[in-house]
Amino acid sequence: MHKIFVFGTLKEGFPNFETNKGIRYRGDFETKERFPLYLVGQRFSPWLILQAGEGHHVRGQVFDVPDDVLVEMDTLERITAPDGYRKVRMSVICLETGDEIPVLTYGKPPEMLEGAQVMQELAGEYGLEHAALYRSR
């Protein structure tokens, strides 16, 4: 099993949740470090930029997922594509207990922002109002 932190369309109740067949940890979490979070392009995709110390603590959910589900998530996030997300390790903090948990998550290197159409900068949380703008592939 893998602990994965989701902050955008893979969250429970969000557009790509059907791909996330994991078991959710109780509570809400946020990244230990601050990261920029944007809505990008005509699809309004949420991008967590892997630039620690910038932006805000990003809020999300943590799931335990088996290998096959992680492969499905990797496919959705296009981790092998040049413009896809990168799967990285980081720490998140449980907002209810203060516990720190090591997780995997998906982010984009800062250089991918060059030339990207940033539609909106988010203050650390991707909400249902942002998901309403999202367009799947």
From TrEMBL:
InterPro entries: AIG2-like_dom, GGACT, GGCT-like, GGCT-like_sf. One of its GO terms (molecular function) is transferase activity. Residues 4-113 form the Gamma-glutamylcyclotransferase AIG2-like domain. Keywords: Transferase. The active site is at 77 (proton acceptor). GO terms for cellular component: cytosol. SUPFAM superfamilies: Gamma-glutamyl cyclotransferase-like. Gene3D superfamilies: Gamma-glutamyl cyclotransferase-like (3.10.490.10). It holds the Pfam family GGACT. Belongs to the gamma-glutamylcyclotransferase family. This is Gamma-glutamylcyclotransferase family protein. It comes from Marinomonas arctica.
